[in-house]
Amino acid sequence: MGRFSGKSVFITQVTDYMGTPIEQLMLAEGAKVTTREGYVPGDERFADYIADVPEPDIVIANLAHSPCNGPAGDIRDEDWFALFDTMVHPLMKLVRHFAPRMANRGAGKIVAITSAAPLRGIPGFSAYCAARGAQNAFIRAAGLEFAPANVQINAVAQNYVSNPVYYPDELVATERFQKHLQRNVPVGRIARAEESAELALFLASDKSDFIVGQIVPFAGGWATNT
Amino acid sequence: MGRFSGKSVFITQVTDYMGTPIEQLMLAEGAKVTTREGYVPGDERFADYIADVPEPDIVIANLAHSPCNGPAGDIRDEDWFALFDTMVHPLMKLVRHFAPRMANRGAGKIVAITSAAPLRGIPGFSAYCAARGAQNAFIRAAGLEFAPANVQINAVAQNYVSNPVYYPDELVATERFQKHLQRNVPVGRIARAEESAELALFLASDKSDFIVGQIVPFAGGWATNT
Amino acid sequence: MGRFSGKSVFITQVTDYMGTPIEQLMLAEGAKVTTREGYVPGDERFADYIADVPEPDIVIANLAHSPCNGPAGDIRDEDWFALFDTMVHPLMKLVRHFAPRMANRGAGKIVAITSAAPLRGIPGFSAYCAARGAQNAFIRAAGLEFAPANVQINAVAQNYVSNPVYYPDELVATERFQKHLQRNVPVGRIARAEESAELALFLASDKSDFIVGQIVPFAGGWATNT
Amino acid sequence: MGRFSGKSVFITQVTDYMGTPIEQLMLAEGAKVTTREGYVPGDERFADYIADVPEPDIVIANLAHSPCNGPAGDIRDEDWFALFDTMVHPLMKLVRHFAPRMANRGAGKIVAITSAAPLRGIPGFSAYCAARGAQNAFIRAAGLEFAPANVQINAVAQNYVSNPVYYPDELVATERFQKHLQRNVPVGRIARAEESAELALFLASDKSDFIVGQIVPFAGGWATNT
Predict the structure, then answer these.
(1) Where are the extended beta strands (E) located within A67-172?
(2) Which residue among B5, C205, D4, D166 has the highest number of C-beta atoms inside a 10 angstrom radius?
(3) Other CB atoms within 10 A of residue C168 CB
(4) Tens of each residue's pLDDT in chain A, 226 residues
(5) What CATH number is attached to the domain comprising D154?
(6) Which residue is closest to A70 within chain B, CA to CA?
(7) Nearest-angstrom CA–CA distance, A136 and A116
(8) Which chains border B (3 or more CB–CB pairs < 8 Å)?
């Protein structure tokens, strides 16, 4: 009997970002997990992406895209729109689709895996910060809106968490990156993916029903906003 | 001799939101003001919108759209995309175009007129919060990026400021709205447009060269985040 | 075998605020719990208060005092200093005493139970906000400082949680308070003490080793700062 | 005719921190300035400190003390209490004394010169962060409380501003400090004291009547919280 026995969980874009570690932890805790691979479409193909997904108790809105970093003066239109098409518009569509159904059933949880980057701002990542900032702001407002219906919507705003998209092992191993860590991340290391997954599970559990619309920084002390 | 004598200022979407009050105050302070009317296009028509605009010392990124409020479960695609098309993508294009030129000249100011809504989140305004949140996050990151080049980029994150788009006089005059004000806005009134314009001018002036990437709440105490 | 089997936990001022619910949950999860009753002295009597406390793996810095609310113009010196003497100075002394010992042992957790009040500010509670704000700021800085030593220091910044000090049942039952809740707390209810205790346990557990210096709002959506 | 002609201004602890630059700018702008030197007493001697101060339109609560930095495990009681005695308790006493009088007269401004340090937290400065955090939280709550009475109370939360207490010229000139600046302060320099004074004057002016309870970061991009 795990912490999520009997719970049905839907995880998007599962082979990227925090998808696999959350899936594994959810399975280990007894959840019934449905997953979909690949970018969640932000357009009319969205309906196909979620077709046949059983009504979930919990949605893990795991949306990620290469950060497309570079100077703000050189942002390419295709990069800019790709960030919004894969991370921002699908998040709205997931909440728009699932949250009212959860409200009708009287309970539900949505946990978005976003980023701490917009909490401080990072030079050279302005496009990424904009898209992640849109996500965080949307989660905050939607979280307050669905709170009275016993649906809790929150976000894990992570940075410096091991994952192939943003912190592949070969980057982390470099001396330059290790120096950067010592200077910028008080914990002095990057997090294992499982550690971020644990926060996601806490926010997906019955234990956190009083937490809504919250963007929880998870960045080893790099961002401690409140 | 005004505070902005000899300064050239470019104001977008001037007949909406804070455009006119900022234009009037800038003119009264001696600035040379260039304006454009109507939504700033976020697509390939952007180049036309800013064609023939003289190189400005100061850009007022005044971008606004009806909030398209309503339940998150009922967000219409056309409303969602209209908010991003008129407020988010054009802001990137304005910064991408003007900030590097300012950096090359060794000085410049961009002031975005955004919103305090995403700082707290407002149920029923999740689409609007998402778009304004994207703006705020972009300004923060771009502000840090251009800081070393002596270009200051900041935002006025306002709420409860008199303007025809969001707070038309007939709404403000209602008893219901006045009660709402007493309960939610410590100052107990909405701001005159000129008051917000004064903050924009402070951020556009030489007096605030040490302030960068800052989203300044301007909401009568409704939002006091730091 | 509970989540805290083999862990030794020290809880201060246990019969007030979140002391008892955290003690009960810790005991149910297998922890060895040491408690002390009454205000933690902020002066030379501090040493007596913690005398004979076994070296704890986890310290729950549970410090509370009547909010002494009232107009800022009428703050009584004795109330003001009582708030700092019971909540602020003892928190420093607890961290000063225990955190370096934890660092020497190579691991440890301190969870302070503070308040969300200073995150937004509450008219009529300026003294209380000042004292709680001092706690939150101290936890943030100390949390960053001890992060490299594998000691995690964080705070639960709660509001609208059932407890005899601030939200006694007879207050909560009034129609006036229920109306206040509907208007100001998106979740529409106060939290059970156990719900806040669950967040404290999450922050006290091995699962949150990457979270440091964080002030986690726990207020049903009343405060959602990040 | 200056911006503050006819206004009476009271500045505390004038020979330290931002006292002199604010005094000079206020005098240049036509204000009648009353000053007191030395720490503002937080005890029964407070009444003597402000005796004979004419009723001011504007109070500049300029309170500073050596940061007494060092490891949290080594905080000396006398340093800890000195920080609260000189920065925290006097701020309450200034607001408690002057704000109600301003409310009775129907207008007034209090600008506290505090610090951005608690907005991010600084290892090794936990005592200083605690005291400055208490100030910021008190200003936020008191600012909301006096807002309906047309009294505006705000803070300049500065860091990296030239002043003899925290950033003496001989420190700033070191190569080590210059490297630190390049890494941590996006603007790449420390601010002149006059720049911070300009923000204080903006918050003390009639132009900012809609801004209340706000802690405005002024730190060259080091802290950009909202």
Answers:
(1) 108-115, 151-158
(2) D4
(3) 11
(4) 799 999 999 999 999 999 999 999 999 999 999 999 999 999 999 999 999 999 999 999 999 999 999 999 999 999 999 999 999 999 999 999 999 999 999 999 999 999 999 999 999 999 999 999 999 999 999 999 999 999 999 999 999 999 887 898 999 999 999 999 999 999 999 999 999 999 999 999 999 999 999 999 999 999 999 8
(5) 3.40.50.720
(6) B145
(7) 9
(8) A, C, D
Q: How far is CA C117 from CA B223, C3, C131, D224, in A?
A: 14, 31, 10, 21
Provide the token pair at A41: 């479409």
**Is D84 within the bounds of a domain?**
yes
Overall domain count for chain B: 1
Pick the closest to residue C183 from C143, C146, C221 (CA basis): C221
Q: Kindly list the distances between the CA atom of residue C216 and the CA atoms of A57, A70, B133, C124, in Å, as whole numbers in the listed order.
A: 25, 32, 21, 23
Within a domain: A225? no
Distance CA B174, CA A122 (A): 43
Q: Is residue A226 part of a domain?
A: no
Determine whether the interchain pair C121/B225 forms a contact, defined as Cβ–Cβ distance below 8 Å. Answer: no
Which chain A residues are within 8 Å of B116, Cβ to Cβ?
Answer: none
Q: Where are the alpha helices (DSSP H) in D106-192?
A: 117-120, 126-146, 169-172, 175-184
State ipTM.
0.98
Query: Which token pair is A164?
Result: 């192939």
Chosen from B45, B145, B184 to mutate, greatest number of chain A CBs within 10 A: B145
CA distance linking residue D156 with residue D143, whole number of Å: 13
Does A3 fall in a domain?
no
